[in-house]
Design a protein that fits this description.
The protein has about 525 residues and is an all-beta fold. It has 2 helices and 21 strands.
Length: about 525
């Protein structure tokens, strides 16, 4: 049957305010922010700086006290834990530099092949798009060796959560909490949804939500604000297109072996069937979140559904159907309105997972017999509207309630409907301003001639957290090489630069004689830039 389907509605997210991230004891990651008692150029017997030794400090012969003893130690980060750059014997570990006693050691350089400091990864180069970015941050779709080395693609759907995957439930299905790209989805039960950290929807119970579950980017894996960042929460800028997941289920004609009795049934050729048939489904979704059978014919003239058992198979995975998961891309129109329109809608004609059966449209053999399922979470603000036109069955549910009922094997002229989510309908569907709900759109193409699909989404926005590091606040974040605070970011030896880079330091490959270095990164040179002959015993 020729049908046109169009859907229009408006959504909005919760807009939160501005949040500043601070830390009263910030680790700079470079330079000693606690004292200037022994500045570069002040050297004891061995010719090396005491770097921050305080007059009342614990005796310097004790490794792990945060005071570097030049005669016995190459570093001292204030603990006796190995694996953080300074060993339990106060020796610098590969890939690290430890410029400031009592402070954390940091990675010498991104791209040296050794994962160190707050690097997510280090694959030995500074190229992006290979799993590890030019700033040693993990990239989507990859897993990287824990201690450094090459990255490799992850496999979504193998039930093994790896790399930057937010989830992996062992399948590539949408609408089950973990989407086909292994990103978390809002959890919706009968149309009412609950936000999940990482889904990109900022809700009151979350400090932030930046659409991922990574740490070190301002918004943590538990959606808490992180020190050293400023985060804002606002509507995302309208993109040029929106891509939604859609699930198709392909069926064979009733007369075919293994065919489904509700698709291309024998009585579909009767002209009396070409009418709108409301009342085929119950007014609420069933416990599985699908439409539930109510009547064989509803308000129609002829039976067009066999029974409750056959109808329950339309939007579920059974032996009668082949499921094909795909996407629907809507182009941006004016403002935040997105539109899809096809007069030749045969989305699974060439799908590898579909049945091979085809029917003629008068010109070519096409795949006519299928259903589609589309779910769209939204935050209710009031006044959203839906309008569309279609032939074969279309049902739209809001918060699990039937909002639009256009059943039947019919022409498009019999299938026009609209709804506005005003105060009256909000009460009818149980909607509260600021609540998180779901539009669920179920469609069936059950009889050949033509296939059209038209969908419009208006004001389909969301609130997303955007976090940026604050250079000069004294908190080193993963995207900064160094941060001791504005007053100390002078660019001097062992100090940070004003833009949170590094000034000259031991390990940069340049011998800074004036600052007490005897060598730098050459054979016979210690990790703290002294000749081996002067190394601690």
């Amino acid at each position: 049957m020729r049908r046109i389907f169009a859907l229009s509605f408006v959504t909005v997210g919760v807009v939160a305010g501005f949040a500043a991230c601070t830390n009263t004891e910030p680790p700079s990651g470079f330079g000693d922010a606690s004292t200037d008692s022994a500045p570069p150029g002040t050297f004891p017997d061995g010719g090396f700086p005491l770097e921050g030794a305080a007059p009342d400090a614990t005796p310097t012969g004790l490794c792990g006290n945060g005071v570097k003893n030049a005669d016995t130690e190459l570093c001292d980060d204030g603990n006796k834990t190995s694996g953080d750059g300074c060993t339990d014997g106060c020796r610098i570990e590969p890939g690290f530099t430890c410029p400031s006693p009592g402070r954390p050691c940091v990675a010498v350089e991104c791209g040296d092949g050794i994962r160190a400091g707050d690097e997510d990864c280090d694959d030995g180069n500074k190229a992006s798009s290979d799993g590890c970015s030019a700033t040693c941050r993990a990239e989507d779709g990859f897993k990287c060796a824990p201690n450094g080395g090459a990255c490799s693609p992850t496999t979504c759907g193998d039930m093994n959560k790896e790399g930057t995957e937010q989830c992996d439930d062992g399948n590539l299905d949408p609408f089950d909490g973990c989407d086909p790209a292994c990103k978390v989805e809002p959890k919706c039960t009968n149309g009412t949804c609950t936000s999940v950290c990482g889904d990109g929807l900022k809700f009151p119970g979350e400090d932030c939500d930046d659409a991922n579950t990574r740490n070190g980017d301002g918004c943590s894996s538990t959606c808490k604000l992180e020190a050293g960042f400023t985060c804002t929460h606002a509507k995302t800028a309208p993109p040029t297109s929106k891509t939604l997941y859609i699930a198709y289920r392909d069926f064979k004609a009733a007369a075919s072996a293994g065919g489904h009795p509700d698709f291309l049934a024998a009585n579909f050729t009767d002209t009396a069937i070409n009418v709108l048939a409301t009342g085929l489904v119950k007014p609420l979704l069933d416990s599985g979140g699908r439409p539930e059978f109510l009547s064989r014919r509803g308000s129609g003239a002829l039976d067009i559904i066999q029974d409750a058992t056959t109808f329950s198979q339309w939007f579920r995975d059974t032996a009668f159907s082949k499921k094909v998961v795909s996407t629907l891309t809507l182009a941006q129109q004016a403002g935040d309105t997105y539109f899809f329109d096809s007069a030749d809608f045969f989305p699974i004609d060439t799908a590898a997972g579909a049945w091979p059966e085809r029917q003629s449209d008068g010109v070519a053999m096409r795949n006519f017999l299928f259903t589609s399922e589309l779910r769209i979470p939204f935050t209710y603000k009031g006044g959203e509207s839906l309008s569309f036109r279609g032939d074969d069955d279309v049902w739209v549910f809001v918060n699990g309630h039937l909002a639009v009922d256009l059943g039947g094997v019919k022409e498009a002229r019999f299938g026009t409907g609209s709804i506005v989510l005003d105060a009256a309908n909000a009460a009818r569907f149980g909607l509260v301003v600021g609540g998180f709900y779901e539009f669920a759109v179920f469609q069936a193409e059950r009889n050949p001639t033509a296939s059209n699909y038209r969908l419009t989404l208006s004001d389909f926005d969301r609130v997303l957290s955007t976090c940026k590091s604050e250079c000069g606040d004294g908190v080193k974040t993963p995207d900064e090489l160094c941060d001791e605070g504005r007053e100390r970011n002078t660019g001097g030896y062992g100090r940070c630069t004003a833009d949170c880079g590094r000034g000259p330091f031991c390990g940069d490959g340049i011998v800074q004689n004036a600052d007490g270095e005897q060598c730098d990164s050459t054979p016979g040179c210690t990790a703290d830039c002294r000749l081996v002959s002067n190394a601690p015993r």
